[in-house]
Amino acid sequence: MRKGFIKVLVLLLMSILVITGCGRKTETINSEQTQEVETAVPVDITKVSKTEVESVVTLNGKVKPLQDISVMPKTPGKVSAVNVEIGQQVNKGEVLFKLEQKDIQLQVNQARAALSMAKIGVEQQLTQLKSGVTTAETNYNDAKLSYERMQELYKAEAISEQQLEMSATQLKIAEEQFLSAKKNLELTEGKDNSESVSKAQYEQALAGYNMAKSQLDNTVVTSPITGIVATKNIVVGGFATSASPAMNVVDLTSVIIDANVPENIINKVKVDDTVEVIVESAGGATLEGAIITTSPVADARTQSYPIEIKIPNEDGVLKGGMFAEIRIVVDKAEDTLAVPLASIVNKDGKDIIYIVEDERVRQVEIQTGFINDKLVQVLDGVKENDVVVIKGQNFINDGTKVSISNQ
């Protein structure tokens, strides 16, 4: 009985020791647990400052040559020679191609012969008229001298009054004949002569010759401008007409960019305004151009207003048909508060920035004004020298602890 009591007592003590041991172990584990440490988010910052902010509109356009001239012969004909190739530089007046001249040359020869004959006819007529004037003048002088003698005889009563009157009549007739011959000569020699058959025939022959000569000249086709041959649609032995271009010559020393401006900004765009142009296929550099035309009427198809922009192209990198991006400054604000465009986060339709204060950020809603691809004008919500997060803002919230990476 006693032995049994002792066993129970021993078991009870052992149980107490086990329970006591387990309690101490739990206390040791709890004391070794560490509290969670807050980690700062790295960000880049900048200070809010006053600057100039431009409102920029970006348009798309297409490059075309300063001049694109279609070359067509004035006289249709068979091509006898082609002197240039596509891409070749040509000067104004340089021969591009020729047409066969055989038939036209015959026409010129015939017209030249007709002109020579008409000229001989005029010369013969002039000779005859001059001779007639000389004869008429002689007759007039003789009649005048005879009349003067008859007057002396009449005074001496050697002739009758009737004889004197007959002499006066002969003088008058001789004078009229002389004046008529002189007038005919003057009309024939004059430029505006419709009364001379020979002169009219000569002028008709001259017109025919000039026409034939012009057709002959038209068989040699020259470049109307200094430029580059862009297209060639003829070959030797083919037929060239005025119905379609035989060649195109373009001037690329400067280029024109066609663009369309929307209604809401057309009145802010003026001739001679400077714009920025980027042509990615020509290297992507920012080029400077000037507006040279603005249409007062909207295009019926696009309902926008066509404009033209001129850009120097001495190096020839801009080609016709290339696509261009045009940046036009339509308004600007000077000495205004601005923040980088990258600093703004849109939350629930609101423009938000984060201002750093005492190693933590404060979320601020701002009111924006002019915006371009770099800056945003801030009308309300910040003040000058506020420290704004410009990188890392998508990983923070109001009150987040931050560390500055760009200092």
Keywords, separated by commas or semicolons:
20 strands; 407 residues; 33% helix; 4 helices; alpha+beta
Description:
The N terminus is likely disordered. Helix 2 runs antiparallel to helix 4. The strands form 4 sheets. A 6-stranded antiparallel beta barrel has the order 2-9-12-11-10-13. 33% of the residues lie in helices and 36% in strands. With 407 residues, it is of the alpha+beta class. The protein starts with a helix and ends with a strand. It is elongated and about 160 Å long. The protein has 4 helices and 20 strands.
> Can you give the mean pLDDT?
84
Numbering strands along the chain, what is their spatial order in the largest sheet? 2-9-12-11-10-13
Q: Helix- and strand-based class?
A: alpha+beta
Report the end-to-end length measured between terminal Cα atoms.
Answer: 86 Å
* Rg, alpha carbons: 52 Å
> Number of DSSP strands?
20
Number of helices: 4
How are the SSEs placed, and which strands pair?
Elements: H1 2-32, E1 41-47, E2 49-71, E3 77-82, E4 89-90, E5 95-99, H2 102-155, H3 161-189, H4 197-217, E6 220-222, E7 227-232, E8 239-240, E9 247-261, E10 274-278, E11 286-294, E12 305-312, E13 323-340, E14 345-347, E15 350-357, E16 360-365, E17 367-371, E18 375-380, E19 387-391, E20 402-404
Parallel strand pairs: 1-20
Antiparallel strand pairs: 1-19, 2-9, 2-13, 3-5, 3-8, 4-7, 5-6, 7-9, 9-12, 10-11, 10-13, 11-12, 13-18, 14-15, 15-16, 17-18
Helix pairs in contact: 2-3, 2-4
Summarize this entry quickly.
With 407 residues, the protein is an alpha+beta fold. It has four helices and 20 strands. The model is unreliable at 1-6, 16-34 and 191-195 (pLDDT under 50).
